[in-house]
Amino acid sequence: MRAMDRAAKQAERQRVARQRALHHQAHLDASARAAAEYEEIVEVLTGAHRVPLSRVDWLATATASELPMPERRSEAEDAATTRLAEYTPGWFARTFGREQKQRDRLADEVAAAQACDDAAHSAETAAAKARNAEIAVARRVVDRDPDAMVAVLDERSALGSLPFSVEGVDTLLLDGRTIAIVDGLNLEDMPEEIVTLLKSGKASVKALAVGKRIEMHRDAICSAAIRVALEYLAALPIDEVEVLMLTDILDRGSGHIQSLPVLHLRATAQALGSLNLPRTQAIAVIERLGAHMEWSKRVGFSAINAAAFGVEL
User: Fold this and answer.
1) CA angle in degrees (0–180, nearest 5) for 228-159-45
2) In angstroms, rounded to a whole number, what is the distance separating the alpha carbons of residues 310 and 176?
3) Which residue blocks in the chain are alpha helix, DSSP H?
């Protein structure tokens, strides 16, 4: 009995040890996930600009010739009809009454071939209409038709899939200028805590210093401005775009929080195309492009005068 008791106690100790090991590993895994998720959030907020510039060649499409509507062809039907017309029953078919069945089968093949030719013609017609519609849209876009340009931005850009970078985008087309008015994220949208992974494998969660949150907000606004510029330049046949970023800041005159302009960026496709954006910090790009903003480490963003850049809000 004592031997069995010792074995049972040893098994229980081993079970408890395994449970503790699994619990410890689960805790480490959870810590690693928490730290990784925090890094992902920061990258989404401050790294939206880290994409290459790839442009649509609207001019090539706009100058293409429209396709004529295809004529219906009947190769399959003609071949099936010929087989039916040339059918000569053999001795076996005549003897055992299979001639009519064979003729019926060939007639069915004619009907199927006709349907096949109809489907091919419909597909070719649809493809020609789609291509001509694409050419028509391209010509409107190249001609700077406002409705066409806005529609292209909605359909071909990723502006609608940037909820962690911008809250809304409006487009102004004024005297040959293309201006994006962007509702950027606010300081309150920045994380309040920072999660890091210690050498022990455990997660360390600390309050994010106010100064760091202000810097993160700056980087988020700058990154969003660049990304919006990239989306406009990628989707539209323009060489330059202006981006005016808005965010909620305290109006010290009224004491109210208002959505006010804080950053004006003028960017060209040539300038952005020459940068290694996936490896560049947003603030460095903003400074290199000569964007205008009022920001300090102590108070963050201050409002700028949009009218100074020819933009009336």
Assistant:
1) 65
2) 13
3) 2-46, 58-62, 75-85, 91-95, 99-142, 146-156, 210-235, 269-273, 282-288
Residue that the structure tokens 């008791």 belong to: 5
Residue 176, helix vs strand vs coil: coil
Place of tokens 């202006």: 242
| pLDDT value at residue 4 | 47
Which residue in the block uniquely carries the two structure tokens 């997660």? 203
Cβ contacts of 216 within 8 Å, gap of 6 or more: 42, 45, 46, 190, 191, 208
**Which residues are within 8 A (CB) of 248 and not within 5 positions of it... i.e. 6 or more apart?**
186, 187, 188, 257, 258, 259, 260
Predicted TM-score of the model (pTM)? 0.76
Cα–Cα distance for residue pair 301/298, rounded to 1 Å: 9
Query: What's the pLDDT score for residue 10?
Result: 53
Q: What is the pLDDT of residue 15?
A: 53
Neighbour-count burial of 55, counting CB atoms closer than 10 A to its CB (0-12 exposed, 13-18 middle, 19+ buried):
middle
- The parts of the chain modelled with pLDDT lower than 50 are 1-4, 9, 12-13, 16, 22, 24, 28
Distance between first and last Cα of the chain: 89
In whole angstroms, give the CA distance from residue 7 to residue 20.
20
